[in-house]
Automatic annotation (TrEMBL):
MF terms in GO: GTP binding; GTPase activity
Domain of life of the source: Bacteria
Keyword field: GTP-binding, Hydrolase, Membrane, Nucleotide-binding
Localization per record: Membrane
Residue stretches making up the Dynamin N-terminal domain: 53-210
Protein name per the record: Dynamin N-terminal domain-containing protein
InterPro entries reported for this sequence: Dynamin_N, Mitofusin_fam, P-loop_NTPase
Keyword Membrane: yes
GO cellular component term, pick one: membrane
Organism annotation: Paraburkholderia steynii
Pfam families: Dynamin_N (PF00350)
Length: 825
């Protein structure tokens, strides 16, 4: 950072010398008034301009906790559900302060200090209290004297990506956000669940030539890997090193090389355990990256200043008679006028392109709406076809608008270069969002009875006699069956609503972009007018210049006397080793009897996992809802899958996470269970998904390992598998991937509650729940809270559960249950 400050000071000194040359007397100062104003604006802009770091990451990866750690205080709200919905800009300040800026220009910014900051952030930056950003927050700016990145750096925290139910049109958002930052801090966790999306987002940043630092957060949740008998196979540090290598391999497979990875625990940093948290190393790494970036930024500014000064020498200070200078000034003015007309025409064409796109999309929407109105409950094939085309249309409209937006951004950049403006001097800050759509439907079988008249004389006679006595003689009855769409009205309404919302979204998007075009066009026109005004003044004062050649020589000497900045050091920093997070180990001698007793206790404790697993399966047998002899275990993190298998299925299976790939089918020689299949769904290909669908097509029980800490990202992962969970006629048992980090934040009840809501939003009922943790208490609680009977509804239910639990576990259980009931009410 010192290097950046030195180069910034050098630029300011060069501007001061140029200003001194152009204003050595009042005649020169009047003549070069517009140039002096330009220099003053650039000096002010560059002195106040800070490095901008974009903090992005998959939802619930601990971004808010990391921001709090970097701010040195617990300010931003944290939650299991997707919470943040606004940009939060963090920087150094002499005192702790928060300023909330609103989109409505008539609404004054709101300043918060002291204890009001946390409450204000909970109100304005949390999706739960400010759903859909109904408060109209434009930006939240946080200043703190404890900001670890120091002066001259701005950290921009963004809403989490890949959140189920929060379809934010990520690609458009990232195309607008990323060009405005100097570097990217991407936050993920030590879990493999979001590796696929993580590499996609990091790739977008690298495509824009942005330096990227990947942060693996939540290393405090890493546990040692144990064997069947409880022996330690790998220490926490070794497991952590494996997570680092896995992430590097994922990035490498995506073609992304030389990305630095920092492993941290933001929770430990907030608890003042800085040395083991890895946060100081992350801060040092960020500062090294900014120091490497500093020459690039400074060189760009120096190049702009050099071009401007050389143009000034050529146009204003070149030797020659006054008539030649005046001719050049007239030609310059004519060129500015022509350019102004060209820009007007160019941006008018851009407006027309967006309007044409809106009209085309609206026409498609009208045609789709007409087809929706002609649907009926029995036209199932037509409904599937129309649903597919509506979904395709919903994907194509943002792609079309995104292409126009990208072309517009390039056009603006080219125009800025032609006018010698920096791209970030133009206001390009636009964000877009839209609601998610659920167009799924189910079919049901209908039937009715039809009577056909019997033929011949006897038939007619029977009908005559039947009519006399009031019977159905003379008729043959038959039953007609057919399939139709269940709740057809709701499905039709969902299609109409999706089309209507998309049309409104497109209209809002186009209006926003047109406003943006007009704003940028006005800014460029203002810049041209300023140039033209300056030229006109010069034309009236050309004769006042008597010593242009002297000034030109002095300015050339200034440019020659300044050496160009060195290129940034391309030598990559050495890859940091995995932080050592193992506790101090001590060897002690114990008698064989004590060792045997300890091993026996471990085996007895491990039997409890089999008991609760069998209890969940037994519930399905009692309900008669599935063939419990066939079991599918599926999840998105190979390590968690293997831990769950080795903890709950060790009597039948043994798993190694490195060997869990794709779909594996195992025949078991037992009476109660005959087949077990294991499916790794993280980045699963078509072969794996087809095998899973085939297995699920027959009666079985599905154990689905889900990350309840990142519930929004988990929903998106489940949705991307294209497995129709709502239509599966089998019991689904949720397996909470891990509760280590949830324990530390006292959010186990919230995670279980959000997991239940996720299952409900995906359209299926949980048949039970387990928790992949060494404390079987959590599995008991989860099964009671999320199981089919939802057994904790009253205080009496709570008392009944407590009677079943050991006395030592009741206090812990009561806290979880009461938090759950508070959320459920």
């Amino acid at each position: 950072m010192q290097r950046a400050q030195e180069q910034q000071a050098e630029l300011a000194g060069l501007i001061d010398q140029i200003e001194a040359n152009l204003s050595r007397d009042r005649h020169l100062a009047a003549y070069f008034r517009s140039e002096l104003d330009w220099l003053e604006r650039r000096k002010r802009l560059w002195q106040s301009d800070a490095f901008r770091i974009g903090l992005i990451g998959v939802t619930s990866s601990g971004k808010s906790t990391l921001v709090n750690a970097l701010l040195g205080d617990e300010l931003l709200p944290r939650a299991v559900r997707p919470s943040s919905n606004s940009l939060v800009v963090c920087e150094w300040g002499e005192k702790l302060q928060c300023v909330v800026h609103f989109k409505d220009p008539a609404r004054k910014p709101r300043a918060l200090i002291g204890s009001a900051i946390a409450a204000g952030l909970q109100r304005y930056a949390d999706e739960e209290t400010n759903a859909g950003n109904r408060e109209g927050v434009e930006e939240i700016r946080l200043r703190s004297p404890n900001f670890r990145l120091g002066r001259g750096v701005v950290l921009i925290d963004t809403p989490g990506l890949d959140a189920f139910g929060h379809d934010d049109h990520e690609k458009l958002t990232l195309e607008v956000l990323l060009p405005t930052v100097d570097a990217v801090l991407f936050v993920t966790t030590c879990k493999a669940n979001s590796d696929e999306k993580m590499s996609e987002y990091v790739g977008l940043a690298r495509d824009l030539d942005k330096p990227v630092i990947v942060v693996q957060n939540m290393i405090d949740s890493v546990v040692e890997k144990t064997g069947h008998a409880g022996e330690v196979l790998k220490s926490k540090t070794e497991v952590l090193d494996e997570h680092r290598k896995r992430l590097l391999n994922v990035l490498k497979r995506s073609g992304i090389e030389s990305v630095e990875i920092n492993q941290v625990s933001a929770v430990w940093a907030l608890k003042r355990q800085l040395k083991r948290s890895g946060v100081p190393a992350l801060v040092d790494n960020i500062k090294r990256q900014l120091d490497r970036l500093a020459p690039v930024v400074a060189e760009g500014r120096r190049a702009q200043l050099t071009r401007w000064t050389r143009d000034l020498i050529t146009k204003e200070l070149a030797p020659g008679d006054q008539s030649a200078v005046l001719d050049r000034q007239k030609a310059n003015l004519a060129s500015l006028v022509r350019l102004s007309h060209t820009l007007d025409e160019r941006y008018n064409r851009s407006e027309l392109k967006f309007d044409a796109a809106r009209a085309s999309i609206a026409q498609d929407a009208s045609q789709l709406s007409a087809e929706v109105s002609t649907l009926n409950a029995t036209s199932i094939d037509s409904a599937y076809d129309l649903k597919t085309r509506v979904e395709k249309w919903l994907r194509s409209s943002p792609a079309q608008l995104g292409a126009l937006s990208k072309a517009l951004a390039k056009q603006i950049a080219d125009d800025c270069q032609s006018l010698n403006l920096r791209h970030d001097d133009i206001d390009l800050n636009v964000r877009f969002s839209r609601e998610a759509n659920d167009l799924s439907f189910q079919t049901t079988e209908r039937s009715r009875t039809v009577k056909d008249e019997q033929s011949g004389f006897s038939g007619r006679a029977k009908r005559w006699l039947g009519g006399m006595v009031g019977t159905d003689w003379g008729y043959n009855e038959r039953r007609i069956t057919w399939d139709e769409i269940a709740n057809f009205g709701a499905f039709q309404k969902s299609l109409e609503s999706a089309i209507s919302r998309e049309v409104k979204y497109v209209d809002r998007f186009v209006r926003t972009m047109v406003d943006r075009i007009q704003t940028v066009s006005a800014q460029l026109r203002e810049e041209l007018d300023s140039h033209a005004k300056g030229v006109r003044k010069k034309m009236s004062a050309t004769t006042a210049i008597a010593h242009r050649g002297v000034i030109a020589q002095e300015l050339r000497a200034l440019l020659r006397g300044r050496k160009a900045y060195r290129e940034p050091d391309e030598t990559p920093a050495p890859a940091a080793a995995a932080p050592s997070i193992d506790e101090h180990l001590h060897e002690i001698d114990v008698s064989p009897a004590v060792l045997y007793a300890t091993q026996l206790a471990t085996r007895i404790a491990r039997r409890r996992f089999l008991e609760i697993r069998d209890e969940v399966l037994f519930d399905q047998v009692q309900a008669g809802s599935a063939d419990c002899r066939r079991v599918l275990i599926a999840g998105f993190d190979d390590s968690s899958l293997s831990e769950f298998i080795n903890r709950f299925w060790y009597d039948m299976l043994e798993a190694e996470d490195r060997k869990l790939r794709g779909f594996t089918l195992i025949d078991v020689d037992r009476t109660d269970i005959r087949q077990i299949a294991v499916a790794s769904l993280n980045g699963a290909g078509s072969t794996t998904l087809k095998a899973v669908s085939t297995f699920l097509s027959k009666p079985c029980v599905l154990f689905l390992v889900i990350d309840a800490q990142q519930i929004g990202a988990s929903g998106s992962l489940l949705q991307r598998t294209d497995i129709p969970f709502a239509q599966l006629q089998i019991p689904i048992v949720a397996v909470v991937q891990s509760v280590k980090e949830l324990e530390q934040s006292n959010s186990i009840a919230e995670a279980l509650f959000e997991l239940g809501r996720l299952a409900e939003s995906l359209g299926f009922t949980l048949a039970g729940a387990l928790v992949n943790d060494q404390q079987v208490l959590y599995s008991t609680l989860a099964n009671w809270l999320l199981g089919p009977s939802m057994r904790i509804r009253t205080v009496a239910d709570e008392t009944q559960l407590m009677d079943l639990l050991p006395a030592r576990s009741r206090k812990q259980a009561i806290a979880v249950v009461r938090s759950w009931r508070s959320l459920a009410s």
